[in-house]
Structure formats: structure tokens, C-alpha cells
């Protein structure tokens, strides 16, 4: 009976294989169609989910300059008092506004008894991630007003054991930077740091800082290495920064002002992060922007990873979901000047004011800025009239700079339709559209730009992400259905590369314990990071874009979702390869009778596959490799081969011509 069951199962598989529908797919590699822009697949960065401070920016101390609304936030006095009151007044906040108006608060230490223990403890960002054997740079700005005081700096693991320390001495009454190196003897994601004051006297201290030495490119005070590497691996065509709604601010006073993010670190004026209390389900009252990661660092990172910088500037209109505060049109000059000065900062000679500052910061050569955005997600006449003034001024002085505008927060509806009518009147060049929709929408809209007016402005799909639950829902997951649906949608964007010039997923980063918004492309904790299934879909497109599109059809029609099959194809003129992307969103395997014109007698290539039978599955910090690409080889005779697309699969074929 057991043998009979085995025979029945075998014949059932054979019958299913024979009955399986075969789709004939024709790829014409002899006729390149339209150019795929080098900026086609890029990155959108916004400081949400602790993406900058506590994330990409490798500083490990939270509230290092005591400028949070409550200056002692993230700090404890040592020894811990029985009450919350500091009755001895040995550790107080001193206003140094005359010395540094941008960061006026410093800690004044009055150590009256040299035998008494006195110090500060910092909790870091959800703890401090420390790795055994790694070296960490401690620094602070301090001045000794009287007496003799030294600093004992200790790193404590989660068991309150000291796993590294250093001693620093102070000399003189002028502000000085004191530095030491700590080598860790243990690995722990939940460490703390103690700063003890030894001796007796009075000192002022500020900018207490701890950085790993193993940063991106080994830069002191630099960026977190693993996170930048994940970005570099995407081979992005551009990086859009610093947002996003961060650009707008809840009020104009809280908007992102790039001039406050350049120059010496200690002189950069921090502000509250607009995402700190935006969502009742994920409040983050300790979320601020120190701007240690500022516009210079953004430009430098873009250069490092070979991406075109795309800075976005305020148009004089605060977030319309919050205050909708507007700068009067007759007082818009500061916003216009910010745009002109930014171009000078990025591209100007060292004999210009802002070019000289760039050189002073360590980069005499220009950053080759080619485009910038005016406004983020604004809408209505208030936006259009401000955009018109700023864009006119930019093009009057810098006619070759491309300007990005936007259609508001949605990809359809009344506000979107209004933008579609008004932006052509303003000679819009590239327009940012955002898509936060359910997975089915992405599958249904692969034809969105097939009949788009080729004489209109170009499209920047600046923020897209399939939502597994609902927009801004804390229940959203980076599951395979979302990623697969995005893969299907991107076939339509690539097919219409003469219209769509840029695309980027959003948001980019999220700390696993400190997030406000899901889903996100890359997740991290204090020591590790991983790419989601969505990340690998984006990576496969960006790493396999090609230089020109070519036709890929079945029965003379584009592959746009019939029977769940989607496709796009291109040629890479640099490597002399044909690149085919096929997506199967159906629950059934599909046989593809592939015929590629323009190949040799026998050609070889590789197949990069993403296959997952459970649409609800997703990668996690503890299981980061549930859904990752795999590679195999392929051989094709006279341009013909039979392929099998497993259910719920995405495959990229690179074949030598």
C-alpha cells in the first residue's frame, strides 16, 4: 500500500508538470529602446526611527552636550541620590551662552571633597553597543577653573562590570579637548558609560563623546560602518537627504536648516526631532537632532558610495499635517538664499564664502551637485507660489541645476490632480510622487506610466513601500508579499525609464527597539544590522539596471500581471549582457519558453533568485537570512531556453550577448 501511494504521488507530479501552462516570452536584444538613467535606483534617507543619532551617526553618547529640553535626559548623577534632587549642587547646568550661543549648556562640576565619589553616567541609545577587542575614542571639551581634577572614564556592561577604562588629566583654565582610547574586553549591546571626577576643584565640561574607531573608512567621529556598507552594496544612483518631513518641521523654527549643520561639530545647533511625539503608539521624547551628521557628512557619504547627492530644502512652508506655518511671500528671501548658498557650498570655488567653508572642513574639491529639491510633500497654492519664486531664482543663477518638485502626500486624489495641472505651468522638471499603498495596489499599477505623456515632466518615485496592514500602522511588516509586489511594480517603472528617472524606497533605516514607522528597508540594533526582503529586491534592481531597456513580450503584449507574471528587460552596454527580470506573484509555478533574439550560438549567464512560499514571512534581527537571494548558472542555446518560475518568486537573469 505504501509503494502504491508513492507511485500515485509520482504520477501526480508528472501530470501537474505536463498540465502546467507554458508562456512564450520574446526578448528582443537587437533593438535598445530608451536610456535608463544612472539615477534610476537610489536611496531616500530621513532621520526617523533613530536613523541618524543612535543609528548611522556612530556617536554612542545620547545628549552629549546637555541641550535636550531637559538637560539631564539620558544622564544619571553618581552616586545615585536617594531623591531626584541634587541637594549638594555639585553637578549643575551652567549657561555658557557668551562662549557658545548655539550650544550654551555645560555641566559645572564643584568637587569639594577629593575623597568623595562624584560622576555622571550615560545610558546611550537603548544602551551602548560595545564589541570585545575594539577601540573606542572618548573625548570631551573641558576647562579647569580651579583645583586639580582628573577624569576616570569607564565602560560598564549590562552586569555593571567594568570592561574598559581610561584616565584623562586637565591642564589650564582655557577650553580644551581631552581625549583617551578605551579597549573593550567584552561584547554587550546594553553597556553604559561612567565619567568620574577625581580630586578637588571646579571644572566645566561639555560635548562628552564616545565613538568606535572602526567607523566607515576609519574616519574619527564618523559613520557606522555596517550601515554605510549596506547602502554601498545597493550601488545607489543617488541619495536624497535629509528627508522627508524632517525638511519641513512641525513649525518653521523646527525645520531643517542646512547652515546649522556645517562647520565645527560643537557649534552646530541641535533641535528636537519632529518624529519624537508624532505617533501616540511610539512616543520618543528623547529624540533630537544633534546634526553631527550634517550636510557636509551627507555629501561626503554620497561621494564615498558613488551616488549623486540630492538635498531637499524648505520652501518656507512647515508640515501641513502639523502647523501649516507659512513664511510670507514677501519675506521668502532667506529661503531663496539658503538654496543659492547651498549650491555654492557644494560646487563653489574655495574663493567663495561657502566653498571656503567646505575646504576648511576638509574637502577643497567641489561635490558636483547637479540637482536639489524644493519642498518635500507640500500641496496647494501655498506650495506652488513658493516653489515658483525659489526655482526661478535658482535657475537664474544656476541654469544647469535640475530642480525636484512634488505632488503632495498621495499618488492620486484631489491634491494630486491639482499638482498635475499646476506643475507643468511652472516648467517642472522632475516631480516627486509617493506611494504608500497595500501590496495589491503595486501589482495593479505596473502599467501606471505605460500611457504617460512623454512631453510632460519626469517622475521621481521618491517614497514607495507596500503596507502589509495600513499606512503608518505599527503592525506593518516587511513581509515577502510586500517585497514581491514591489518587484512587480518596479518592472513597470523600469519599462518606462524614459519617464521615470529616479526611484527610492522609504523609510530607509529603523532601530529594532526605537522605531516610529514601519515598514523600513534596513533594520539594526546596537551591534548588528540586516536587509529586509524589500532591501534585496531594491538591490537586485539597482545592481542589475542595465543601460537601455529592450522589449520583453508575450503574444505581443508587455508582461504586466496576466496570470501573475511581470517582466522587464534591458541591455548593459558596458558588460555586453542581457538582463531579464521576471516576477511570478501567483501561487502556481510557471513555465517560460524564453526566446532571446540577438544572442550567439551558445551563451552563459547567471540567475539570481528570490523564492519564498510563505507570503507572510520576513527577515528579523535574529533570523536575518530567511529571505535572501541565491545564485546559479544558466546556459542558453541559440537564444532559447525553458525556465521555471516557482510560486511567489522574483528572478534576475544576466546573460552574455
UniProtKB/TrEMBL annotation:
It comes from the Bacteria. InterPro entries: Alpha-L-AF_C, ASD1_cat, CenC_carb-bd, GH, Glyco_hydro_b, Glycosyl_Hydrolase_51. Keywords: Glycoprotein, Hydrolase, Signal. The keyword Hydrolase applies. Its EC number is 3.2.1.55. Pfam families: Alpha-L-AF_C, ASD1_dom, CBM_4_9. This is non-reducing end alpha-L-arabinofuranosidase. It comes from Emticicia oligotrophica (strain DSM 17448 / CIP 109782 / MTCC 6937 / GPTSA100-15). The lineage of its organism: Bacteria, Pseudomonadati, Bacteroidota, Cytophagia, Cytophagales.
Amino acid at each position: 500500500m505504501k509503494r502504491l501511494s508513492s507511485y500515485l504521488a509520482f504520477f501526480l507530479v508528472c501530470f501537474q508538470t505536463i498540465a502546467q501552462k507554458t508562456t512564450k516570452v520574446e526578448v528582443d536584444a537587437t533593438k535598445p529602446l530608451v536610456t535608463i538613467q544612472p539615477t534610476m535606483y537610489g536611496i531616500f534617507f530621513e532621520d526617523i526611527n533613530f536613523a541618524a543619532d543612535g543609528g548611522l551617526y556612530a556617536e554612542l553618547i545620547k545628549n552629549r552636550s546637555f541641550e535636550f529640553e531637559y538637560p539631564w535626559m539620558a544622564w544619571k548623577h553618581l552616586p545615585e541620590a536617594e531623591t531626584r534632587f541634587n541637594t549638594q549642587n555639585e553637578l549643575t547646568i551652567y549657561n555658557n551662552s557668551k562662549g557658545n550661543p548655539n550650544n550654551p549648556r555645560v555641566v559645572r562640576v564643584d568637587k569639594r571633597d577629593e575623597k568623595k565619589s562624584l560622576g555622571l553616567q550615560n545610558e546611550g541609545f537603548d544602551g551602548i553597543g560595545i564589541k570585545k577587542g575594539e577601540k573606542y575614542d572618548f573625548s570631551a571639551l573641558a576647562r579647569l577653573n580651579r583645583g586639580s581634577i582628573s577624569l576616570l572614564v569607564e565602560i560598564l556592561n549590562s552586569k555593571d562590570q567594568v570592561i574598559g577604562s581610561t584616565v584623562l588629566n586637565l591642564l589650564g583654565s582655557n577650553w580644551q579637548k581631552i581625549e583617551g582610547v578605551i579597549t573593550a574586553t567584552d561584547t554587550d549591546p546594553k553597556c553604559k558609560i561612567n565619567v568620574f571626577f577625581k580630586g578637588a576643584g571646579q571644572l566645566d565640561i561639555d560635548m562628552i563623546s564616545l565613538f568606535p574607531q572602526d567607523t566607515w573608512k576609519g574616519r574619527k567621529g564618523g559613520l557606522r560602518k555596517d550601515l554605510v556598507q549596506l547602502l554601498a552594496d545597493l550601488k545607489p544612483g543617488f541619495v536624497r537627504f535629509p528627508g522627508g518631513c524632517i525638511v519641513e518641521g512641525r513649525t518653521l523654527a523646527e525645520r531643517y536648516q542646512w547652515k546649522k549643520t556645517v562647520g565645527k561639530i560643537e557649534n552646530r545647533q541641535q533641535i528636537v526631532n519632529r518624529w519624537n511625539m508624532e505617533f501616540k503608539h511610539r512616543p520618543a521624547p528623547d529624540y533630537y537632532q544633534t546634526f553631527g551628521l550634517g550636510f557636509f557628512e551627507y555629501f561626503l557619504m554620497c561621494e564615498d558610495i558613488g551616488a549623486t547627492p540630492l538635498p531637499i530644502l524648505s520652501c518656507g512652508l512647515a508640515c501641513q499635517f502639523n502647523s501649516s506655518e507659512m513664511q510670507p511671500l514677501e519675506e521668502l528671501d532667506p529661503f531663496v538664499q539658503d538654496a543659492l548658498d547651498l549650491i555654492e557650498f557644494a560646487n563653489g570655488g574655495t574663493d567663495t564664502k561657502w566653498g571656503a567653508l567646505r575646504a576648511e572642513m576638509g574637502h577643497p574639491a567641489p561635490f558636483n551637485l547637479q540637482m536639489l529639491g524644493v519642498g518635500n510633500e507640500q500641496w496647494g497654492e501655498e506650495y506652488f507660489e513658493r516653489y515658483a519664486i525659489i526655482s526661478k531664482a535658482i535657475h537664474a543663477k544656476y541654469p544647469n541645476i535640475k530642480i525636484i518638485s512634488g505632488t503632495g502626500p498621495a499618488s492620486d486624489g484631489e491634491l494630486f490632480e491639482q499638482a498635475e495641472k499646476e506643475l507643468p505651468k511652472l516648467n517642472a522638471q522632475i516631480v516627486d510622487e509617493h506611494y504608500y499603498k497595500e501590496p495589491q495596489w503595486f501589482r495593479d499599477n505596473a502599467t501606471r506610466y505605460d500611457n504617460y505623456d512623454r512631453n510632460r515632466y519626469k517622475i521621481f518615485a521618491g517614497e514607495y513601500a507596500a503596507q502589509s496592514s495600513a499606512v503608518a500602522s505599527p503592525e506593518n511588516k516587511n513581509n515577502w508579499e510586500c517585497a514581491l509586489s514591489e518587484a512587480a511594480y518596479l518592472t513597470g517603472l523600469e519599462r518606462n525609464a524614459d519617464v521615470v528617472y529616479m526611484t527610492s524606497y522609504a523609510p530607509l533605516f529603523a532601530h529594532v527597539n526605537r522605531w516610529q514607522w514601519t515598514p523600513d528597508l534596513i533594520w539594526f540594533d546596537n551591534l548588528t544590522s540586516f536587509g529586509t526582503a524589500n532591501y534585496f529586491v531594491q538591490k537586485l534592481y539597482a545592481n542589475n539596471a542595465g543601460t537601455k531597456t529592450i522589449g520583453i513580450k508575450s503574444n505581443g503584449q508587455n508582461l504586466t500581471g496576466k496570470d501573475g507574471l511581470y517582466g522587464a528587460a534591458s541591455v548593459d552596454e558596458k558588460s555586453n549582457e542581457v538582463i531579464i527580470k521576471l516576477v511570478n506573484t501567483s501561487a502556481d509555478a510557471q513555465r517560460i519558453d524564453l526566446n532571446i533574439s540577438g544572442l550567439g550560438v551558445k551563451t552563459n549567464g547567471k540567475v539570481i533568485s528570490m523564492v519564498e512560499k510563505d507570503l507572510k514571512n520576513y527577515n528579523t534581527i535574529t533570523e536575518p537570512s530567511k529571505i535572501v537571494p541565491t545564485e546559479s548558472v544558466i546556459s542558453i542555446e541559440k537564444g532559447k531556453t525553458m525556465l521555471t518560475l516557482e510560486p511567489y518568486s522574483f528572478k534576475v537573469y544576466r546573460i552574455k550577448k
